[in-house]
Amino acid sequence: MNDTSGLGDDAQLITLDVNGTSYEVITAPRRTLVDVLRHDLRLTGTHVGCEHGICGACTVLVDGLPSRACLMFAAQAEGARITTVESLADADTGELGDLQRAFSDHHGLQCGFCTPGFLMLAQGFLTERPEASKEEIREVVAANLCRCTGYQTIVEAIDACATARRAQRAAGTEETSCN
Amino acid sequence: MTSVTENQLVGRSVARREDPRLLTGHGRFVDDIELPGMLHAQFVRSTVAHGLITAVDLTAVRRVPGVVAAFTAADLGLGDITARLDRPPAEFVPTAMPVLARDRVRYVGEPIAVVVARDPYAAEDGLEAARVTYESLPPVTCEEQALAPGAALVHEEAVRNTLVDVSLFATEGIDGIFENAPCVVRVEARTGRQNALPLETRGAVAQWDAREEQLVVHTCTQIPHQVRTVASRCLGLDERAVRVIVPDMGGGFGLKCVVGREEIAAAAAALRLRRPVKWIEDRKDALSASFLAREQHYTARAAFDADGRILGLDADVVCDMGAYSCYPFTAGIEPLMAAGEMPGVYKVPAYRVRGRAITTNKAPTAPYRGVSRPQYVMVVERLMERAARELDMDPLEIRRRNLITDFPYTGVNHITYDPGSYLESLDLCEQALKEAGWYDRQAAARAEGRHIGIGYSCFSERTGYGSAAFAARKMQVVPGFDLSEVRMDTGGAVTVTTGTMSHGQSHETTMAQIVADALGVDLAKVKLHQGDTDRITYGWGTFASRSITVGGSAVRRAAVKLGDKLRAIAAAEWGVPPEETELARGRVRRRDEPGIELTYEHLADIAYLKSHLLPEDIEPGLTATAAFDVTTDGTFSNATHGAVVELHEGTGQVEILAYVCVEDCGVAIHPQVVEGQCRGGIAQGIAGALFEQITYDAQGEPSATSFMDYKVPTAHEIPDVTIHHLETPCAFTETGAKGAGEGGTIGAPAAVLNAVNDALRATGVELDTTPITPETVHRALTSPALEQTR
Ligand code: FES
Ligand code: FES
């Protein structure tokens, strides 16, 4: 018997696609996605603040959409594309992504416990709505809890990232149209 | 002076050293620690608020699949956690907090037994199989019950359920002053019981290390050395046989600055089982069974002359500390802070106060960010506002007449306040709100029948509590000093250790800035280590905004000492006295001939690898240690907050339209970090003013067990905050810095409450109690007085 997994007779083999890698996990049906990510796959960037769907510290992307990983059983995530905070920096160089840099520039994190949740929330949202206004961003930020920052710098960081991405895209289009 | 000013880092918002790992998911929080063979602990907790335990049956627990062991207090035989004040029995009653309840439980959620299992799910299963029977005792759930004659006693030794009862100052003639004063105003205020609520709950991973003969406890605490002391004493180990290591921490705010029973119990289980044991608190336990704070009741009055000058302050403060005294601060933490410091920023010539800590059948309390200051500032600011109304004066003018302006100022409370910008911050705050047009908008809104109010709070915050200040409280365990060691390796890279413990405050960055400046090296050359009791002899951790004032000063002193050693080695090389040398960007150079210089790398090479070259009076190696303590009454940061609120008639909702903070924390090591502390603090102050409260029903059952029933404000409710800085450097910290950790939380409740009262002006209703609920506001807005004005 595996001493740490606490597997019962009902253990099942599931396949999870996390950050583009496929993992096979033997797990109990009641195990949540966040526990499997953190403790079986050792992707501990995703955090747990409440286990009842309110704080958002466990936010990951499931097929691109921000989701509470504490509210899903791991088995329910089979077949979906799961994206966690570990995917945001450059895989080879470790260089921070633009959203991460914006959080650092704006001091959008203090203790950093809520941060992976906010990053994934913003990452999912900005992909859906790249033209989001600061007010819309504030609405979305209100989905998660942070006890340290007072939220202002989180909103500013995401807004700055969105603005920079838009400018970059505009420059890119201009370039294309010029050529 | 040998310090290096070119390229100075202090005062610049450099990139945070903490950020890259936290942003990539590579932080290491306690729940991220996984050790081979690790077991998982959870606690069987009391389901009654007050009762005698008649039986604890864990037989079925031990049969649950996956459960490895289950222990009661009797199984583990641990010592108690007892915090003491050196005060006579009439002023303080010590009470013991057992690690696990033995024969009696005193609040819902009190730990009774620890269940250890192969995984957290099995541990939860185990809890369900526990059978505990109780003989109920009448629960004491509020102040009225606690103090009623013949009340049930929470601790038999604490008569009238009173743990602390001090009467202080009582200026001669104070009764006469109140009798003869032209204006006396009163405030009766209550503040809700809150949870400091770090987003990361508490937790620990403990493991016996047979080779080192040490119990290693990874735990998220603000006070690693105090956890070590308590763990060693409860477990009967030498203190050196316990090593406390603090990983990254997801906030603390005071809740983690007391020793928790569960971290000790988890350590005991690991010691007994000789296997690693992890305990991670769930949110339900964190909300209702950890440490709470802030439930206070003030009955206060103030006398004024006809010109609005305060003549006297007379207050009675009752703090509901719940079931136990916390270690190391005791149940005195809240009443002693309130009683000692209530006159605050005002020239109060006569003062009398009674401060009490009562014990009830509720979760115990810890010193939550600001400790009593959010409350007494609120009460004093309400007294000011009420006097202004009574005397028909401008509420800011009455403050201006009373603010301390000549420093140093020794108050009626025997505290000497070092220089600050009390008046200047008020002026600037008013100006900022005026220039932003809020007074005009308020007038226009009033004409439309809308309810916009503007409110202020003026306060200072003692941040440099040294051992003298804590000793004055008569704590038996007296915090105050801190230590630092600064070390340079053979290649010139610098390691700093400190006894303080950052948990969001960015010390890896700010302490490194201080050291980099003192030695004249790049920030990247400096690495801070904290939170490891084997790495530094002793430390008092992070609380009371002390880290930069005390810890930062120790760090700077140690760095300067190390610089002195580098100079001594270079001086010996050159055959000149050390005074003839100075530090300059990673080198020691000759003062008389700055072209002659030796790099730190070169000097480090001599210090370690060519020590035969050192003169006899210089020891090999490059380390320096230093201590720092504050021997005066301490230093005071100050601020004025201004809030603009709108009350919504239909819902009773309080919306914060604007918020301005003018703060002065002396030299800001890292302005962006200071602003972050202000904003985060203000958010927590607003949370207390408008949203958060844990109540208890008649059976002592807490109202809040999830985020569904404890409203933590989100980006919806927390406004953007405009911050202005003033800088009155501290004369006796090594950097000129004062602390900045708590001010935001201290000022916000008063500013918001005053703004709400300003908006309610036409109703004739005045509110003095927090949280200000929508029901209260709605009721006020539908009061008959308001109808008449329409
Ligand atoms: S841990 Fe999932 S929402 Fe809080
Ligand atoms: S940074 Fe600490 S909870 Fe958000």
TrEMBL record, chain A:
The keyword tRNA processing does not apply. Residues 12-88 form the 2Fe-2S ferredoxin-type domain. Pathway: Alkaloid degradation; nicotine degradation. GO terms for molecular function: 2 iron, 2 sulfur cluster binding; metal ion binding; oxidoreductase activity. CDD domains: fer2 (cd00207). The keyword Cell membrane does not apply. InterPro entries: 2Fe-2S-bd (IPR002888), 2Fe-2S-bd_dom_sf (IPR036884), 2Fe-2S_ferredoxin-like_sf (IPR036010), 2Fe-2S_ferredoxin-type (IPR001041), 2Fe2S_fd_BS (IPR006058), Beta-grasp_dom_sf (IPR012675), Diverse_Oxidoreductases (IPR051452). Coiled coil: none annotated. It comes from the Bacteria. Keywords: 2Fe-2S, Iron, Iron-sulfur, Metal-binding, Oxidoreductase. This is (2Fe-2S)-binding protein. It comes from Streptomyces sparsogenes DSM 40356.
Automatic annotation (TrEMBL), chain B:
It comes from the Bacteria. Residues 24-138 form the Aldehyde oxidase/xanthine dehydrogenase a/b hammerhead domain. The keyword Zinc-finger does not apply. InterPro entries: Ald_Oxase/Xan_DH_a/b, Ald_Oxase/Xan_DH_a/b_sf, Ald_Oxase/xanthine_DH-like, AldOxase/xan_DH_MoCoBD1, AldOxase/xan_DH_MoCoBD2, AldOxase/xan_DH_Mopterin-bd_sf. Gene3D superfamilies: Aldehyde oxidase/xanthine dehydrogenase, a/b hammerhead (3.90.1170.50), Aldehyde oxidase/xanthine dehydrogenase, molybdopterin binding domain (3.30.365.10). Its cofactor is Mo-molybdopterin cytosine dinucleotide. It holds the Pfam family MoCoBD_2. This is Aldehyde oxidase. Keywords: Molybdenum, Oxidoreductase. GO terms for molecular function: iron ion binding; oxidoreductase activity.
